[in-house]
UniProtKB/TrEMBL annotation:
Protein name: VanZ family protein
Organism: Pontibacillus salicampi
Keywords, comma-separated and alphabetical: Membrane, Transmembrane, Transmembrane helix
Top-rank taxon: Bacteria
Transmembrane portions of the chain: 6-23, 35-54, 74-95, 132-154
Pfam family, one: VanZ
Length: 160
């Protein structure tokens, strides 16, 4: 494999490094609630979000339980999961597309992304005040599947 082709693999490896670092950071050092409370008045959302109540990882997620800032932060954090693994899929796909002749680049990209999502969640189990949860792997997988859908749609349009 040429150095140029190998260099494409630095992209997903670097991204996984950033995800690893993020998973190594305790929740208290990542929370957005103080920022949201200090710099944004989200009180107007309270009546809109108040009826939304559900359980995630044995915890009730609601404005009543978390406050508006905590509720908004929950969705920002889950959106970050989705977006991060959307990007990871794309980086794996680029590395495989540029570096191999395999016809199963999309499948391999998906499998590598899901595998890293599982590893990342297990790694969180070793971080203070962080817990691994399969629900986050499902969200990560959804991000990868969205990226797969985008790549597949783009490739199908390009072939026509």
């Amino acid at each position: 494999m040429s150095v140029k082709k190998l260099a494409y693999w630095l992209l997903p490896v670097a991204w996984m490094g950033m995800l690893f670092y993020s998973s190594s950071t305790p929740y208290q050092e990542q929370t957005l609630k103080p920022f949201l409370a200090s710099y944004m008045d989200l009180s107007f959302l309270k009546p809109l979000l108040h009826p939304i109540v559900f359980t995630y990882h044995h915890t009730i997620v609601s404005v009543e339980q978390l406050g508006v800032e905590g509720f908004v932060e929950f969705f920002i954090r889950k959106g970050a999961h989705l977006g991060s693994f959307f990007i990871l899929f794309g980086l794996f796909y680029i590395a495989l597309h540029k570096g191999t002749a395999s016809e199963k680049k999309r499948l391999w990209s998906l499998l590598l992304t899901i595998s890293y999502a599982v590893i990342d969640e297990m790694h969180q189990g070793f971080t203070p005040n962080r817990t691994p949860y399969y629900g986050d792997v499902i969200i990560d997988t959804a991000g990868a599947l969205l990226a797969l859908l985008l790549v597949t749609t783009f490739r199908n349009k390009k072939q026509k």
